Please model this.
Amino acid sequence: MKRNIGLFIIIGLVIFPLSLGLAQEKPRIGVLRFTNQTSAGWWSGNMGYELQDMLASELANTKAFQVLERKEINAVLGEQDLGASGRVDSKTRAKIGKIKGAKYLVAGTVSAFEHNTSGGGGGISIGGFSIGGKKDKAYMAVDLKVIDTETGEITDNRTVEATSESTGVSFGAHLGIVSGNLGQYEKTPVGKAIRACIIEASEYLECSMTKGKSDPCMQAYAEKDSKRREKTKKSIQLD
Model:
């Protein structure tokens, strides 16, 4: 009897950690290229990929997901093909058949964008530096969809918003040292609104996909969404 009890204890000590590890597996997630439904002047052919990279990076920074590379997947496949060719040391080559599949895909659409500049009297520009008095404000909204790759079902959706503005006398340098098309907007209200929207999106996904509906963060997002809906309804004039 004692031997059986001891055996059950040993089995429990082995199986319980394994089952706990499986239960706590981080969601496997991939980010799709963003699309645009606005006439935003900053949007160009590569912006969808830049926003895709930004969101993937922010999601990885949360440490709450297994973020799977999809934009550069061809480079990964090429490395595996090179390993399979026999030209790479068998101990270090990338093995075929080990790429993880995404359980969820995140799709983002820029659904609203506004940029207003007013004032600016007395502004001057010398050697790439500018000094001027103006009010610059940008607003952006992104519609998120989380898609289950097994069923094609949209398991979650949310609109996230961000607003950024600068007022009064501003001093700025435009040296073109940041790569990417969004680099030229990095320190402007436009760039800050874009970045804030992406961060808000990553934080929402971390909350909704890893913490559950009962977590206080979901209540906070529900209140934000309620305010957004009320504000939108008030802006519509009905007879």
In short: The chain has a mean pLDDT of 80. The helical segments are 2-23, 47-61, 73-84, 189-210, 216-234. The first helix runs from residue 2 to 23. The two ends are 82 Å apart (CA to CA).
